Amino acid sequence: MAGEGDQDHAHDGEASVPPRPCPVCGKPAVFAARPFCSNRCADVDLHRWLRGAYALPAADDDEPPLEADAKDRGE
Fold it and tell me: Which residues line the annotated binding site for Zn(2+)?
């Protein structure tokens, strides 16, 4: 019986925190699709990841190699 009361209190803290906005459309997030507002927005975000929209551009390496690196490679 004590376990049932513990479960009720575990969800009380979540209800008191205001929901964050959906990162795709800005609507309030719902618990079932957290952090999104719907499964549609979750799918939109997944598509963006798979397409590479969130990829960071590679930095150009304009610096010459360090002396230690050149010695390790036998240069």
Answer: 22, 25, 37, 41
